[in-house]
Write a structure and sequence with these properties.
- The chain is α+β, with helices and mostly antiparallel strands.
- It has a single domain, classed as C8orf32 fold.
- It is about 30% helix and about 25% strand.
- It contains 6 helices and 9 strands, in the order αβααβαβαββββββα.
- Strand 8 and strand 9 form a beta hairpin.
- The radius of gyration is 16 Å and the shape is globular.
């Protein structure tokens, strides 16, 4: 089984650009960016993560606003490769099975929950590719069945994209089947904001 997964991951890496779906143009991609609204309560799992990893959640001193990521073919390939690699290397497993509690956000070993996938992708994209943490934002969504879920938002000059442990492809946020609820603040990773235009995504995405 592991051999089949490894072969599948290798084949997917060869097709990395196809795993990153860019909008054809800003005109064709309806609302390519999430609209960030008022502050929102931090997820309980993230509160606990920040207590255990305080350096991960401190405001970052900056001179001016950080620029969104500017994509090029080489960077697209590298991001897709990390997304595939993390999805392939980690086995999805509930926190209750791993830690005996409902929510425990952490960097995963060989197994983890959805938010653990997102944390690991965030770390690798920053450490290996130098992408600013302000453009790598943990995000809480709701699935079509009503269940909560966590993904990583990549903020770029072409729009906001979603790295998801349930999908090998990196999709423009409007092309996912989710309702978007809140995400990490770009200015302060220990704070969260509501997504003002996120609740109408679910119907539009399902209709596609």
């Amino acid at each position: 089984m592991e051999g089949i997964r490894a072969i599948g991951a290798t084949l997917l890496l060869c097709l990395a650009p196809a795993l990153f779906t860019l909008p054809a143009s800003a005109m064709e991609a309806r609302e390519p960016f999430m609209q960030i609204g008022v502050s929102a309560p931090r997820p309980l799992g993230h509160q606990d993560f920040c207590r255990r990893e305080p350096t991960e959640c401190r405001p970052i001193a900056r001179h001016g606003q950080p620029e969104p990521v500017e994509l090029d073919p080489a960077l697209i390939h590298a991001i897709a490769r990390i997304n595939v690699s993390v999805n392939s290397a980690i086995k999805a497993k509930p926190d209750e099975d791993l830690y005996g509690i409902e929510e425990y956000w952490t960097y995963p070993g060989t197994a983890g929950d959805c938010e653990d996938f997102a944390l690991e992708k965030r770390r690798q994209l920053h450490e290996r590719l130098g992408i600013d943490y302000a453009s790598l934002l943990l995000t809480v969504v709701r699935k079509p069945n009503g269940e909560g879920h966590a993904v990583l938002t990549l903020h770029t000059t072409d729009g906001d994209f979603v790295l998801d442990n349930l999908n090998w492809r990196i999709l423009a946020w409007r092309d996912t089947p989710y309702a978007f609820l809140k995400r990490q603040s770009a200015a302060d990773p220990g704070q969260w904001n509501r997504i003002a235009n996120g609740r109408d995504v679910l119907v539009g995405a399902v209709e596609r």
